[in-house]
Amino acid sequence: MKNDLRQKLHLEPKKGWLNDPNGLSFFGGAYRVYFQYSPDSPYGDGDKCWGYFEGRDLLDWKYMGAVIRPDIREDINGVYSGSGLVRGDKLYLFYTGNVKEDGDYDYITCGRGANVILVTTTDGRHMSGKRVLLRNSDYPEYCSCHVRDPKVWEENGSYRMVLGARTLEDKGCVLFYRSDDLLDWHFEKSVGKDDLGYMWECPDVIRLGGRRFLSISPQGLPHGMYSHQNVYSAGYFAFDGEVPREFEEWDYGFDFYAPQSFTAPDGRTLLIGWMGIGDIPYKNPTAELGWQHCLTIPRELSVGKNGRIIQRPFRELGRLKKEPPVSIAQGENVTAKLPFCFASAACEDSFSLRLSDAVDVRTENGVFSLKFPDERAGGGRDIRRVKIGECRSLEVIADMTSLEIFINGGEKVMSTRFYPDETALTVAADGITGIIHELAEMRVMTDENG
Predict the structure, then answer these.
(1) Pairing between strand 60-68 and 443-446?
(2) Which of the 8 DSSP states describes residue 55?
(3) How would residue 447 be classed by pLDDT, with cut points 50, 70 and 90?
(4) Where residue 309 sits, what CATH number does that domain have?
(5) Cis amide leading into 244 (omega within 30)
(6) 377 and 393 Cβ atoms separated by less than 8 Å
């Protein structure tokens, strides 16, 4: 069957452009997933809004369209990224209101307003009036006009906020603020690290297993064969509150940026990222059909024995598995219909797993690689690599136009978009065995008129 390129396991808009996940929360008995949204253009042109999905669980969603639009002077050029905090019967949503002044400006050192704005909602989709909390004059004098993406949480009886920033010396940093009432915010400190880019976007402080991590999406990193291979990166530090430690990337594939964490009602820490990146040198053919980009599946986070974060597919995905599964043996080819998941049973030191002529994943000499032999299927994507030592396990979540690959139980992850012509793929195994489950699709209804 011909592939219509519509995802079955991932949240994506019916039309327009999606990027950063925003305001992720569980509130009023439902999951709330907002996202950066340009409803009028699959290339990100026009109004920059917040789109909205609401789900009673992680497999059953309603798509609500744009729910926050730029309509005041302080956000006239875009409702940019932010976060959500549940307090009582209200969800507090914080975002950056973008303003670009008319004139001959570079919009880095002058000409741009970056305002932290608050709205509240009691039902997730109908918003209160907007209140401006912070303006450029409230940021340290060493900051450029690029300050954005508030993430807010409660800790030890007060509220904390982090903002991503670019200094006038072109160094990325995170600004920390504190409040007693969510309205009046006071600057506490900034945290940075030398030689890690000129801008840090989408900061997030993640408390996990009694430890603390600082997540950022830095821009301007030098690219290597095994690290920072994309235009922009996303990763985290172990963080004691003062000095960030070694930077670890969240994802080593082609398409991952701007992740945000939140807590599920059962206590799990979940992470969702944008399965895309800005300014990419490759293409997504869905743009020609009127939409572009999707979010990743939710990933469950835990801390591994080495102190680094483990990412696993959300457990609800198992409810979509169709029975019976199909076994694939060494040297065997089987046909699987998208969407499906593959889980390895045994891996040799060197192996390959090939999906038709579209994608080749393999391990050789301690390096895991994701390669597109067919440039058209990858939209111009070529190869990504990550050092793993040995491969003990492999799990692949294959949707209609995406792959999320979890290596060694989620110690490393690679995500990519891909565009096979047909929904039935030939899976060829060499040096690896495993099980394939075809997957039912999650439910996404559309309700933009409430």
Answers:
(1) parallel
(2) E
(3) confident
(4) 2.115.10.20
(5) no
(6) no
The β-bridge partners of 422 are 2
Q: Facing residues of 309 across strands? A: 303
AA letter at 417 = R
Q: Tell me the C-alpha distance between 313 and 339, whole Å.
A: 15
- In a shared domain, residues 273 and 395: no
Distance CA 432, CA 353 (A): 7
Quickly count: other Cβ atoms within 10 Å of residue 280's Cβ: 18
Task: Tell which of 263, 282, 315 closes a domain.
Answer: 315
The boundaries of the domain holding residue 366 are 320-444
Predicted TM-score (pTM) of this structure: 0.98
Does the structure show a pLDDT above 90 at 450? no
- In this structure, the answer to whether residues 79 and 200 fall within a common structural domain is yes
Mean pLDDT of 167-177: 98
Residue 446 corresponds to which tokens in the numbers above?
Answer: 């559309």
CATH code for position 393: 2.60.120.560
Residue 424's CB: how many other CB atoms inside 10 A? 12
Distance separating alpha carbons of residues 413 and 80, to the nearest angstrom: 27
φ, ψ (nearest 5 deg) of residue 38: -115, 95
Transcribe 210-252 into DSSP letters. Answer: TEEEEEEEEESPPP-SSSS-SSB--EEEEE-SS-EEEEEES--
What is d(CA 14, CA 7) in angstroms, rounded to the nearest whole number?
11
Q: Does 449 fall in a domain? A: no
Residue 443's SS3 state is strand
- d(CA 425, CA 155) in angstroms, rounded, equals 48
**Which residues have CB under 8 Å from 60's CB, separation 6+?**
442, 443
> Which pLDDT tens digit goes with each residue over 129-155?
999 999 999 999 999 999 999 999 999
Task: Tell me which residues are annotated as active site.
Answer: 20
Q: Residues 30, 286: contact at Cβ < 8 Å?
A: no
